[in-house]
Amino acid sequence: MVDVLVIGGGNAALCAALMSRESGANVMLLEAAPKVWRGGNSSHTRNIRAMHDEPQDVMLESYKEEEYWQDVLKVTGGITDEFLARLVIRASSQCRDWMRHHGVRFQPPLSGTLNLSRTNAFFMGGGKALVNAYYRSAEKLGVQIRYESPVSSIEIRDGKFIAAYVGAERIEAKTCVLAAGGFESNREWLKEAWGINQYGESPADNFLIRGTRYNNGVLLKQLISLGADSVSDPTQAHMVAVDARAPLYDGGICTRIDAVSFGIVVNKNAQRFSDEGEDFWPKRYAFWGRLVAQQPGQIGYSIIDSKVLGRFMPPVFPGEKADTLEELAGKLGLDPKALQETVKTYNAACRVGTFDHTILDDCHTEGLEPAKTHWALPIDTGPFYGYAVRPGVTFTYLGLKTDDTAAVRFKGVPSSNLFVAGEMMAGNVLGKGYAAGIGMAIGTVFGRIAGTQAAKAVKNQSLKAEYAAT
């Protein structure tokens, strides 16, 4: 029997395994994926949002607790647990030295991400390098790692973890950390959650999965059915507008279309449906997948002109290019007259001040619904560019309710030996919306808490056994 069983193989799971092992516990980690695909969604990440009161190596200026909290409050619309959110915020300022100790390296932000230089620390080599560093450290410390070991169910008795099943194999452990991700790869569950829309469609049929194909939510569904307290809405998720040509799984960061803020986005009827300039892209990009999901056919089209080229991270695959809007509409499969009318109306509403893509500038629209509140420039300079986008689901927010000990709760009572971290509990902080890098902050902070608490529970069990023996 192992002391701590960690179920999952991404950032949160690895942080939990490392912390437990550093605390002296015997640890086994079960990763559902083959070794080559290890790391789950974490392998696609780039950075962590971190509080800091003064400049720190690759992080400029300061990003203090209250500003960080206001960012969380804004993107979630207040659907967040303030106590746990502030816990993550404060603890995020203390993670990076520990991360470096386990081989993670940081670098200054790249071109196109400069407005994150004050708030986010970027990983040298991206998420894959971070995951590999953690696995190397875990192996060196003696963590038992098993790949291709999806857990089909766990055994719970009176809110206490007993064992996990990998197929027919039963694995007992004194404590367990659940860090197996959300259910974004479970198409049937997504369809059940989203239902049929007003167009008679099942929106989830057209969702692309930005991350791993191994996050099927098997244990999440089982725990909820066993009475574990849950949090958030099954339709809420980190959903991004991604290139409609992206692969079904593991498209990752490179499929994101970042041109949205600098032009307009229309649906298949060539009609705008939201404010493209509401806020900086790192605070807004994860809203756009959900917005597109609510459009007919779950598809949208980002339209820009030549004036804004070079203002955003260019997409990996080129979009459609045309000298006229009529030609562009034809290439995108849109009604040319409808697109021209939409652009004409938008252009007439633009009130151009001093354009500055690095601040919330004064270029806006008047008398237009929906408005565009910043970076509103007329689309009038060819050639014109268009990118078809679909909803890209990174991870779902429905998860297990927890507290500052990371314990799974059953009817309000925290389990003595079952803990949760990462995407399986991120909904406590993220009721909706997203800010770049906060998922890694939640996973790192709660992975560390869960690992520490699991090792502590093992020691408590040993002390009780020794006391009973005397």
Radius of gyration, in Å, reads 23 Å
Q: Which residue ranges are poorly predicted, with pLDDT under 50 across at least 5 consecutive positions?
A: none
Q: CATH top level of the largest domain?
A: Alpha Beta
Structural class: alpha+beta
Main beta sheet: strand number and arrangement? Answer: 8 strands, mixed
Q: Architecture of the largest domain, according to CATH?
A: 3-Layer(bba) Sandwich
- In the CATH hierarchy, the third-tier topology of the largest domain is known as FAD/NAD(P)-binding domain
Helix proportion range: 25-40%
End-to-end separation in angstroms reads 23 Å
Shape: elongated
Task: Summarize model confidence as the mean pLDDT.
Answer: 95
How many DSSP E strands?
21
Number of alpha- plus pi-helical segments: 11
Cofactor: FAD
Domain FAD-dependent oxidoreductase 2 FAD-binding: 3-431
Keywords: FAD, Flavoprotein, Oxidoreductase
GO molecular function: oxidoreductase activity
Explain the layout of strands and helices.
Blueprint: E1 2-7, H1 11-22, E2 27-30, E3 47-49, H2 65-76, H3 82-92, H4 96-101, E4 106-107, E5 120-123, H5 126-141, E6 144-146, E7 153-157, E8 160-166, E9 169-178, H6 187-194, E10 208-209, H7 218-225, E11 230-231, E12 237-243, E13 264-266, H8 281-293, E14 300-304, E15 320-322, H9 325-332, H10 336-349, E16 350-351, E17 364-365, E18 384-396, E19 399-400, E20 407-410, E21 413-420, H11 438-469
Parallel strand pairs: 1-2, 1-9, 2-6, 9-21, 10-18
Antiparallel strand pairs: 3-5, 4-5, 7-8, 8-9, 11-19, 12-18, 13-14, 14-18, 15-18, 16-17, 20-21
